[in-house]
């Protein structure tokens, strides 16, 4: 685990524990703090231990400088934006680390900056094949074990808290938001397509997901060990990077369409193209937490007034004010509708039996899933790639010649 990964992990877990503490769950925070610190210290891995010390100091300072947070007055929009930007910044640093590591390998120099294993999160097919290998053959991949871990993380978030990963964590979603805002500077009006175009476009991401699942499920079980030991798999991350930095004409056209969709409408990429979004959309139907409108408090039913502030705030164009439970696969649990609602109790992110999850609770849940699992995987030896540096250095020199 590189220092940037260690620091992000320590910061995220320390922040979750601080949120727990600030919300009055002091014993829970103490128990979690002891558990996480014990796990990190027992790793005897200095970057993790140093990162934990830095994270604790940062949180102690943050408590003084963020009276709003310390007093419990958290606004969902502020919290979501800061979580998203911090995660995007860490992914950017991870990207720089990956590029420097690869450039040194390509130049034939033993890298002084280690490869960030978390980058394997961008290998969903490899992750799917690895999960299949674990379930059918009981084999753990040695080359990109983090791919299976990160895929499991994403699947778990979908099962527990809808598409909160898209709404609160995804750096690509954040980039799409900025692109959309840039477009709005020049062309002010919304360019929402009519429903008869919107619906088939939304199905595109499900088709892409089907194609990915076809590759994973279609691979014969007995071929999996061969694939996991192949040179192609050993450098799947470099192949992926090469695909992005040396795009062919078809790739450039695809990128153009993706960027165009993101700029055209809010969450255009997530809504129409992203197969991860499709996967999470399907899993989100199983999530116990949903946005629920309480008719006893909503101005429409309780007071007979006209109101659609929640619907107007929704980036996924869901008619929140007309529904009781939001089951839509497009809901990213962003809580913008809750923030926009003038009545405190009218909208909640809750289970059917009334267990509510605040923005703070959702942040704790999301960060815990996203970072505790990698920590456990790291401690169990299922995180760091065992591909020798010399093998990667040799393979990167022959990248073009290595196929499936
Ligand atoms: S329904 Fe609410 S939580 Fe879901 S996407 Fe719309 S604004 Fe976000
Ligand atoms: S914003 Fe609140 S009060 Fe208004 S319609 Fe939506 S849930 Fe009801």
From TrEMBL:
Predominantly, its location class is: membrane
Q: Which Pfam families match?
A: Fer4_10 (PF13237), Fer4_5 (PF12801)
Any keyword Iron-sulfur? yes
By its UniProt entry, which PROSITE patterns does this protein fall under? 4FE4S_FER_1, 4FE4S_FER_2
- Tell whether Ion transport is among the UniProt keywords: no
Q: Where in the cell is it found?
A: Cell membrane
The protein's UniProt keywords, in alphabetical order, are: Cell membrane, Iron, Iron-sulfur, Membrane, Metal-binding, Transmembrane, Transmembrane helix
Q: Which SUPFAM superfamilies match?
A: 4Fe-4S ferredoxins, MFS general substrate transporter
Question: Sorted alphabetically, which InterPro entries does this protein's record hold?
Answer: 4Fe4S_Fe-S-bd, 4Fe4S_Fe_S_CS, MFS_trans_sf, NosR_regulator
Q: Which Gene3D superfamilies match?
A: 3.30.70.20
Q: Which residues cross the membrane?
A: 7-24, 44-65, 86-109, 121-140, 147-165, 206-228, 240-263, 269-286, 362-383
Where is the 4Fe-4S ferredoxin-type domain positioned along the sequence?
322-352
Annotated protein name in UniProt: Iron-sulfur cluster-binding protein
């Amino acid at each position: 685990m590189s220092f940037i990964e260690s620091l992000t992990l320590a910061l995220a877990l320390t922040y979750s524990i601080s949120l727990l503490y600030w919300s009055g769950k002091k014993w829970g925070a103490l128990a979690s703090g002891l558990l996480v610190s014990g796990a990190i210290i027992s790793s005897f891995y200095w970057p993790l231990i140093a990162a934990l010390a830095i994270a604790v100091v940062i949180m102690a300072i943050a408590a003084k400088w963020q009276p709003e947070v310390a007093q419990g007055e958290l606004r969902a929009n502020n919290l979501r934006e800061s979580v998203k930007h911090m995660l995007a910044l860490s992914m950017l640093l991870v990207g720089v680390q990956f590029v420097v590591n690869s450039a040194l390998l390509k130049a034939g120099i033993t890298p002084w900056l280690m490869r960030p294993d978390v980058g394997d999160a961008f290998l969903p097919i490899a992750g799917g094949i690895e999960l299949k290998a674990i379930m059918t053959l009981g084999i753990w991949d040695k080359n990109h074990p983090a791919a299976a871990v990160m895929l499991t993380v994403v699947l778990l978030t979908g099962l527990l808290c809808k598409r909160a990963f898209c709404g609160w964590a995804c750096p690509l979603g954040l980039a799409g938001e900025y692109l959309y805002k840039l477009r709005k500077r020049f062309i002010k009006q919304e360019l929402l397509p009519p429903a008869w175009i919107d619906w088939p476009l939304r199905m595109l991401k499900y088709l892409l997901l089907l194609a990915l699942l076809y590759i994973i499920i279609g691979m014969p079980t007995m071929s999996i060990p061969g694939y996991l030991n192949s040179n192609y798999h050993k450098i799947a991350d470099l192949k992926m990077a090469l695909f992005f930095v040396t795009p062919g004409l078809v790739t450039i056209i695809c990128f153009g369409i993706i960027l165009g969709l993101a700029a055209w409408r809010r969450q255009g990429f997530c809504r129409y193209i992203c197969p991860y979004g499709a996967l999470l959309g399907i899993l989100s139907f199983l999530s116990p937490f949903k946005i629920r409108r309480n008719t006893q408090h909503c101005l429409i039913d309780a007071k007979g007034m006209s109101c659609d502030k929640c619907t107007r705030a929704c980036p996924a164009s869901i008619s929140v004010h007309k529904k009781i439970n939001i089951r839509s696969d497009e809901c990213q649990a962003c809580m913008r509708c809750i923030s926009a609602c003038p009545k405190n109790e009218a909208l909640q992110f809750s289970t059917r039996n009334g267990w509510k999850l605040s923005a703070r609770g959702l942040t704790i849940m999301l960060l815990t899933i996203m970072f505790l699992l990698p920590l456990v995987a790291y401690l169990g030896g299922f995180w760091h790639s065992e591909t020798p540096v010399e093998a990667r250095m040799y393979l990167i020199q022959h990248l073009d010649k290595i196929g499936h």
